[in-house]
Design goal:
Length: 408
Amino acid sequence: MPTPVIMPKQGQSVETCIITRWYKNKGDKISAGDLLFSYETDKAAFEMESPADGILLDTFFNEGAEVPVLTNVAVIGKQGEEISEFFPGKSAVKETLSAEIPAEPAEREVEVTTGSILSVDSKIRISPRARVLAQEKGIDYSDLRGSGPNGRIIISDIEKEASYTSKSRQAFIPSGQEFTDHPITNVRRMIAKAMHSSLQNAAQLTHHMSADVRRLLEARKKIKEGVASGSIKEDITLNDMICWCVIRALYKFPEANSHFLGESIRTFSQVHLGIAVDTSRGLMVPAVKNARDMDLTCLSKELKSAADSCRKGNINPELIQSTAASFTVSNLGNYGVEMFTPVINLPQVAILGVCTIVNRPADLGNNTFGFVPYIGLSLTYDHRAIDGGPATMFLKEIKNQIETFKYS
């Protein structure tokens, strides 16, 4: 009997996925585990492998098609078998969908050893097609970070690595051409839609302030020394400390920890902290739930875990919905940005932009002046929900939390 290939459901809120590429064509002979197609949700990319051996008898959607989850997208079987009952919309499909469907696509990983003595952590997760392509292009993937589920290296990771190492990468536009056109990915389309909607539908203003960051830098130095000596296990970053300070400030100014819902404002008793994460597929903003209850070490672990899950492509889709976080922090300090205007992730009412550290002249006391490291803070808020006065006081409280930070 033919075997249907079903579009997996990635999270409770995901209703459709977009097929980005077919790796096999109708009539091809395939084996269980062969890559069939790649697909995207609004924030993550995945690959689907064949669930059975046989002939790809038919595919029901083209590349670029937006397909409802748990819908038949193809069928595998023997040449000449009847497949009409598997067409999307047929009653037989409903029977198939009533069966237990795994939350994630079945995947066969190739585990490659990099030495004669191998620990469990040194196994490399890579798809068969990605491994073949890497061998063809001479790509060393032993240190490559995979963007697939569970850190799995997929074909797009190898293609991206090849583009960076290729000599043609030295020029963005091929010789002899005036320009090149690149199709917009589904992720980029969703980001563009969200940013445009935010700016169009909210009364956004940005206040800028800077904070003396000497205490944070002293704490960071102690932590780095502790990690090096082995006395400290968690490498807590400056961003972790700033997020900790933001959470403390939200205690005193809960109006910033809210959603604007049009006819009402929903203020949260708990802090669900969103963090902007730059990934190869675009910007993601995962939420760290119940951050108010965490100590600094726990918060640091959760922030790193959320960012890593986004980059690997296995973040829970529920956590990257705009409604999942109650407040967001976006840090561009590592890029040297001294000031910027972050865009609110609606329906949240505010977002904090963290800028780079700049040494500025300051009064050190006793009529002594010197240079002091200051970190830039940019608070964008929705004036429909918060007035300028409370917004400024909230930003000043973040500054105060940073300047009085204590690390034990």
